[in-house]
Amino acid sequence: MASPLEVRNIHKQFPLKDGGVHDVLVDVNFTAEAGEFVSLIGPSGCGKTTMLRIVHGLETPTRGEIICNSVKVEKPDHRRGLVFQHFNLFPWRTVLDNIGYGLEVRGDDKKSRIDRARVMIELVGLEGFGNHYPHEISGGMQQRVGIARALALDPEVLLMDEPFGALDAITRERLQRDISSILERQPKTTLFVTHNMDEAIYFSDRILVFGTRPGRIIEEVKVPLARPRQADTIRASREFTEIREHLWILLSKEMQREDA
Ligand SMILES: Nc1ncnc2c1ncn2[C@@H]1O[C@H](COP(=O)(O)OP(=O)(O)OP(=O)(O)O)[C@@H](O)[C@H]1O
Ligand SMILES: [Mg+2]
C-alpha cells in the first residue's frame, strides 16, 4: 500500500534580488507511514517551514512532487491540516467558528459544522469557551483552537510548524502532554517542525535532521522508545539521552560548517 505521504525529489529555489536564485531545498526525499510521527529539525533558515508549506500545497516546488495517499498535491485542501506557530485565528470569529472554518470552506452544513466543532472543543479541553473570541483566551488556548481547527477536518496528514514556539514553558509542556495523549488516542500521520530536540524525541517515531545551505536531509534518526511515553520518565532514560547526544552532535557540526 502507498504511504500516506511521499515527498519525492523536492528542490525549491527562491529568486534573489540581484537576479540570481537561492537553493533553499535540494533533493529532499522521505515518506511518512500511516500514524507515524515524523519531526523535521535543523538550523534556522534550512527550509523546514518551506518544506511544510510545499507539503500543504501553499508553495509549489521548483522540481519534484508531493503525493498524499496516491494523489499529487497541487494546492491546499482538507487532506492536509496545518497548525502554525502564531495561531493564525480569525479575531472576529468565535472559538467555535474558528474551529469550524475549514468545514465551512469544505461546504459542510451549519449543523454538522457546529456538532463537529463541539466534539473538537472537548477533545482539546476548551469546554465552555466556544463563544469566546481569540483575544479573550490565553495563547495556550488559542493554540488549542488552531489544533482543533486542523483536526476538525480529519486530515490524512497533520502538519505542525513549531506549534508550541510562541508559548511559555509551562503552557508548552501542558499542551505537549495533551497533544501527545490526543494522538495516542487518535493516531495521525504527522509532520512536525521544531527547534527543540527534547520535543522532537518525545513525540517522534523518526526525526529528519536537516542541514543548511542548501537545505537537505543529513540524517534520519529513529526513535524506538515505547509508547505511551511519559515526558518525565523518558527524559531520564538512557535511550533518550543517547538520541539527544547524537542529535546535538549532528546539529553542532552543521552549525560549525555553516559558520566556517
Ligand atoms: N517567499 C520567499 N521568498 C524568498 N525567500 C524565501 C521565501 N520563503 C523563505 N525564503 C528563504 O528560504 C530559506 C528557508 O526559509 P524557511 O522559513 O523555510 O526556514 P526555516 O528552516 O523554517 O527557518 P526557521 O527555523 O527560522 O523558522 C530562508 O533563507 C528564507 O529567507
Ligand atoms: Mg520556520
Question: Can you tag this structure with a few keywords?
Answer:
single chain, alpha/beta, Rossmann fold, six-stranded mixed β-sheet, four-stranded antiparallel β-sheet, 10 strands, about 40% helix, about 25% strand, binds adenosine-5'-triphosphate, binds magnesium ion
Structure description:
The structure is a single chain. This protein is α/β, with parallel strands linked by helices. It has a domain at 1-79 and 158-163 and 191-260: Rossmann fold, CATH 3.40.50. Helix content is 38%, strand content 24%. The protein contains nine helices and ten strands. It has helices spanning 48-56, 95-99, 101-106, 110-123, 139-152, 169-185, 197-203, 231-235, 238-259; strands at 5-15, 21-32, 37-41, 63-68, 71-72, 80-83, 157-161, 189-193, 206-211, 216-222. A six-stranded mixed sheet has the order 6-7-8-3-9-10, with helices on both faces. Strand 4 (63-68) and strand 5 (71-72) form a beta hairpin. Helix 4 (110-123) packs across helix 5 and helix 7 (197-203) crosses helix 9 (238-259). It is globular and about 55 Å long. The N and C termini lie far apart (44 Å). The model has no long low-confidence stretch (mean pLDDT 94). Magnesium ion (MG) is lined by residues 48-49.
